[in-house]
Design brief:
233 residues, five-stranded mixed sheet, globular
Length: 233
């Protein structure tokens, strides 16, 4: 009888950030770049895979408590997060963007007098605060862009892949990248998971070397971003 394969418990955002993740675990529309990435990584690690969804502001606490083994959901590597958790080697280079309606194209928050929206607990929120503004904080990706489209917000600060997707699928939305806000996404793990981090890093390097990563990037991101984001060097 074969040994039982252990299950890798992966946390994702309950407010899915397309194109990185669409839908929720257990639903037929659950898919995306990070979903595919984790499925391939789990295969390389010889692990079965289960996804669990929570609000982003709750995911890190669940990881710390041991409910999850890792998080893969547009998690930007920051010094504050690295003080609490381990990160894999980066799997995507990104930047912040300003998303606005076409009749009020916003290129900068300097001197901006309108209402700013941002996801709670994200570098986008921190950037708005550092710019001297008090953003309206949201937990839902869908809700923040609905509020933008109906005119309740003047601009949304978001990660470029997410903002570009909503702009491409919204009405009259414009995207402007923010210089000097480059970031990198990584898989998040507990501080005591050094062995898992090593295994994940080895698997990520293998996906890059054998062309699997490029296939996933071409499928989900390249048509949307036109190489504005790519794998981190």
């Amino acid at each position: 009888m074969s040994a039982q394969v252990s299950v890798l418990r992966v946390g994702v955002d309950a407010a899915p950030p397309p194109p990185l993740c669409h839908g929720l675990p257990g639903n037929p529309d659950f898919r995306g770049f990070e979903v595919d990435l984790m499925q391939v990584l789990a295969q390389r690690l010889g692990r079965a895979l289960t996804f669990q969804a929570s609000r982003w502001t709750e995911l890190l606490d669940r990881l710390a408590a041991g409910d999850l083994e890792l998080i893969c959901t547009a998690a930007t590597i920051t010094s504050e997060r690295q003080a609490r958790f381990l990160f894999s080697e980066p799997y995507l280079r990104t930047t912040l963007a300003l998303i606005s309606r076409g009749d009020a194209h916003v290129h900068s928050l300097a001197g901006f007098g309108g209402v700013v929206g941002a996801r709670a607990g994200t570098p986008a929120e921190a950037y708005a605060v550092e710019s001297g503004l008090e953003p309206v904080r949201f937990h839902s990706n869908g809700e923040i862009y609905r509020e933008l489209e109906r005119g309740a917000l003047g601009v949304v600060v978001d990660d470029l892949p997410i903002g570009a997707w909503f702009a491409a699928h919204g009405q009259r939305l414009q995207v402007a990248t923010v210089k000097g806000t480059d970031g990198r996404y990584g898989v998040v793990m507990r501080r005591d998971a050094a062995e898992l981090k090593t295994a994940v890093d080895i698997a990520l390097r293998a996906l890059l070397a054998d062309g699997t990563y490029t296939q996933l990037y071409d499928k989900w991101l390249r048509p949307l971003l036109e190489d504005l984001c790519d794998i981190a060097a």
